[in-house]
Amino acid sequence: MIIFDELHKKPEWKNFIKGVFDTKESGTRILVTGSARLEVFDKLGDSLAGRYFRHRLMPFSLAEFRKINETVSLGQLMLRSGFPEPFLVDDDLEASRWRQQHVNGLLKSIYAENDYLAEEKELHYLRTKDGLEVDFAVANKGELEYILEAKLSDKNISKSLLNFKEHYGYKAFQVVKNMGKSRIESEVKICVAKEFLEGLYL
């Protein structure tokens, strides 16, 4: 395997990597890593279409831990974040120093489904002129798939969520961190946050 890190900083990097790809020995794999969104460079000259498979590396998620049978609490993940450095250290103070902006597990799952399953999912929010608002709206191929409201401990259905559900018939979830058992009320699924996040694709 040939590994290139931060290759986008090299002038004419796309022509370079195309040359390496086209002349490599059969069976040789190439891994390109970096902090830039490499797909945006497709719009700037020669395309890499057909030559690469994209994988967005995101923080650890509850769904990911469930798949490897690792028990992690939602509180621990919220405190430490899913980044490897703060998650693995022993001291919470050290973890807080390392912590970066929280990356939502929902966004990670959407990216994974787009990258691995060729979906076209997007994450939005809903807001009316009257100020009714829902935290998340997940669309796929331009069609709204479901809406979601996130709560810390309020088990009552969000009025905004219920309004959108009743007027437009959207599939609706309310995800609550501090509650005992999931239930369905007024066709809205009120979920324990840990269960919902573990059930995501990744």
Please characterize this protein's 3D structure.
The protein is an alpha/beta fold and 202 residues long. It is built from eight helices and eight strands. The protein has two domains: 42 residues, no CATH class; 137 residues, no CATH class. The protein is 32% helix and 22% strand. The strands form two sheets. Strands 3-4-5-6-8-7 form a six-stranded mixed β-sheet, sandwiched between helices. A two-stranded parallel sheet has the order 1-2. The longest helix has 13 residues.
* Content-based structural category: alpha/beta
Look at the structure and give the mean pLDDT.
Answer: 80
Total discrete domains: 2
Low-confidence stretches: 97-103
Number of helices: 8
N- to C-terminal distance: 26 Å
Shape: globular
Helix content: 25-40%
Quick overview:
The protein has 202 residues and is α/β, with parallel strands linked by helices. Helices cover 32% and strands 22% of the residues.
